[in-house]
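Long-time lurker, first post. I've been practising inverse folding by hand and with some scripts of my own, and I keep getting stuck on stretches where the structure tokens seem ambiguous. Below is the full token string for one chain I'm working on. Before anyone asks, I'm not after the true native sequence, just a reasonable design that respects the backbone. If someone could post their per-position residues I'd love to compare against what I wrote down in my notebook.
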């Protein structure tokens, strides 16, 4: 008689920003060691390939640049190349004219990307890049390579200041707009920072340009299957001021894990359940949790009790 096979536990998520169990709308910025600016992982090749597909099929949706951003884009590319060659020489080679990404075999001639440097930057690593320029009405989004948006459209935000960009985020205008503007004004070149954002989703797709606010309960998600049907999506975001142009670069590295990956972390399952229970109604709607909230909480409570 064969013994029943025990499934190996899933690797647990890299970041657990809900671990404390509190939900607070806060900047949550901490100092970034620049050596850890870019965070390649085992998804490097599949995610770069996924970006390549999006850049062929939906280029206008995932790359956007305003006139006048070319110098800052080139500054981003130069910083990225220097960083990758120094810290990840197996992932990027630079012979002065061409860049090679050995794990995918892609080769890029620097000259071909003179006026589209942020587009090339986005092809070299898993991160997305957003460039913000100082202006009279605050910092505005001037260029981006954004293959993995979390329910927003680049075209709607390009050229806009932070307050308009964040208009759909409940509480941002009251609680965060001013501190964020002040922080941007004072961000020093030698003081980069990072933060982590979390959201929930019933779809693990990385490219998600559509904002959803479903009203009906999704009967297909139950406490029994929520671990595999629902996903926790974390964005590791960095902010740094570029030394030459003085613009600000915002990077986003996206992690998507099935909720079942919390099985080995009952403390994190309890933290997420508690944070979800604390969400103000507007935020719950914004995060589109209502359709499966009960199934999610039943599942998480089960993990937390183990
Ligand atoms: C200190 C800096 C920042 C803070 C504290 C911040 C905070 C937030 C928060 C709390 C959310 C809601 C996320 C959720 O609940 O899922 C959000 C969404 C968003 N943030 Fe930021 N953010 C910052 C910087 C930026 C920058 C530089 C950009 C530039 C592109 C940006 C673009 C967005 C967008 C597009 C959304 C989605 C808005 C929508 O739903 O339409 N954020 N941000």
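-- Answer (accepted) --
I ran through it position by position. Result:
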């Amino acid at each position: 008689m064969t013994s029943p096979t025990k499934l190996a536990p899933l690797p647990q998520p890299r970041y657990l920003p809900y671990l404390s169990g509190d939900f607070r709308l806060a900047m949550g910025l901490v100092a970034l060691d620049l050596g850890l600016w870019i965070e390649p992982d085992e998804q490097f090749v599949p995610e770069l390939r996924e970006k390549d597909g999006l850049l062929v099929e939906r280029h206008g949706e995932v790359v956007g640049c305003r006139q006048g951003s070319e110098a800052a884009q080139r500054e981003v590319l130069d910083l990225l190349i220097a960083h990758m060659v120094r810290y990840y020489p197996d992932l990027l080679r630079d012979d002065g004219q061409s860049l090679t990404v050995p794990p995918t075999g892609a080769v890029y001639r620097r000259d071909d990307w003179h006026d589209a440097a942020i587009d090339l930057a986005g092809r070299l690593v898993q991160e997305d890049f957003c460039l913000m320029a100082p202006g009279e009405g605050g910092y505005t989004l001037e260029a981006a390579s954004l293959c993995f948006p979390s329910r927003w459209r680049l075209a709607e935000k390009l050229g806009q200041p932070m307050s308009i960009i964040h208009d759909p985020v409940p509480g941002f205008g009251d609680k965060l707009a001013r501190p964020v503007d002040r922080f941007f004004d004072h961000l020093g070149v030698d003081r980069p920072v990072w933060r982590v954002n979390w959201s929930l989703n019933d779809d693990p797709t990385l490219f998600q340009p559509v904002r959803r606010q479903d009203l009906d309960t999704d009967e297909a998600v139950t406490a029994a299957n929520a671990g595999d049907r629902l996903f926790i999506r974390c964005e590791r975001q960095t902010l740094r001021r570029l030394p030459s142009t003085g613009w600000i670069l915002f990077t986003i590295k996206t992690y998507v894990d099935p909720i079942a990956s919390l099985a080995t972390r009952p403390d994190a399952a309890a933290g997420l359940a508690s944070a979800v229970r604390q969400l103000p109604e507007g935020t719950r709607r914004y995060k589109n949790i209502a359709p499966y909230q009960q199934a999610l909480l039943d599942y998480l409570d089960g993990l937390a009790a183990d």
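A couple of notes from the structure itself: Strands lie at 30-31, 63-65, 93-94, 98-101, 106-109, 128-133, 140-145, 193-201, 231-241, 248-258. The mean pLDDT is 95. Happy to go over any region you disagree with.
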